[in-house]
């Protein structure tokens, strides 16, 4: 009943405080009861935003159930809803969020979809800190991505010519795919979304997003794209999604790195055995990013980009003829 009337209730009402107090005192051993309680907390996240002194206790209560495998899905959903509703009250808890994230990826071992919800939650908090700049967002993103970047770099050894590619098979493939999935979710969640382009860089010089894309493209994506044809399918899918999220999340700053990315993609497409249909999903993002940034690109660079895209499209023709990879390529990409 409480969940059903959540949208009808006056969020300014003081009646919500005893509700949260009662929920947090419910017996923890009753999993069905706690599942309902966690969903109720999530539905009343907007009310919680009006009771600042309750935000941290309630969020801590929710986080405690991320450790319970049978309640992780509802706990992750409530965590995300509270973060989306109460970013102003959570701005000073970056260190705590980092510990939660590391636990989700490690000892708690929560499912990937639930981990995405947790990342989306604290990503929203960091984007809404009043003093946030692009530089601080990118710096925080690097801290959260540190462990996954280290893991991806460790897997590079398996791509050396002297090492059999079978070493990238399961379970290593699953771990590598999970790293790329988390990195893609991190970059999408931390960087400004469409309509939030009020952030500025206070350090001057190059947009920090451009530097981030250039670095991650060169160090993380390119080594695996260059060995595309030998990668397991789940790694291919998550690698492509990581590249797409990175390119789309950094569109406003991409004009300085697009020519470099185009040249490297052309080289990959042109290599024998590398005409993998999934590369079209990345090509689609490059075309979309270029078309949206077109007016901001100097005319001489536009010519180079157009020629690069034309060459890349020609190289992609073998892929178009065999584009039947389900979730990785859709009609929009073609």
Word description of this protein:
This protein is mainly alpha-helical and 334 residues long. 62% of the residues lie in helices and 0% in strands. The chain is built from 14 helices and no strands. It has helices spanning 16-24, 31-43, 45-48, 52-64, 72-85, 94-105, 112-127, 134-155, 172-190, 208-225, 233-249, 258-270, 279-293, 299-321. Helix 6 packs antiparallel against helix 7 (112-127). The longest helix is centred in the C-terminal third of the chain and has 23 residues, at 299-321. It is elongated and about 65 Å long. Mean pLDDT is 79; it is low at 161-167.
Helices, strands, pairings?
Elements lengths: L15 H9 L6 H13 L1 H4 L3 H13 L7 H14 L8 H12 L6 H16 L6 H22 L16 H19 L17 H18 L7 H17 L8 H13 L8 H15 L5 H23 L13
Helix pairs in contact: 2-5, 4-5, 5-7, 6-7, 7-9, 8-9, 8-10, 9-11, 10-11, 11-13, 12-13, 12-14, 13-14
List keywords for this structure.
single chain, 334 residues, mainly alpha, 14 helices, 0% strand
Overall pLDDT level:
79
Q: Approximately how much helix is present in the residues?
A: 55-70%
- Indicate the overall shape: elongated
Number of strands: 0
Rg: 22 Å
Topology as a string of helices (H) and strands (E): HHHHHHHHHHHHHH
Strand content: under 5%
The end-to-end distance, rounded to whole angstroms, is 47 Å
Biggest pleated-sheet summary: none
Determine the number of helices (DSSP H or I, runs of at least 4 residues).
14
| Class derived from helix and strand content | mainly alpha
What low-confidence regions span 5 or more consecutive residues with pLDDT below 50? 161-167
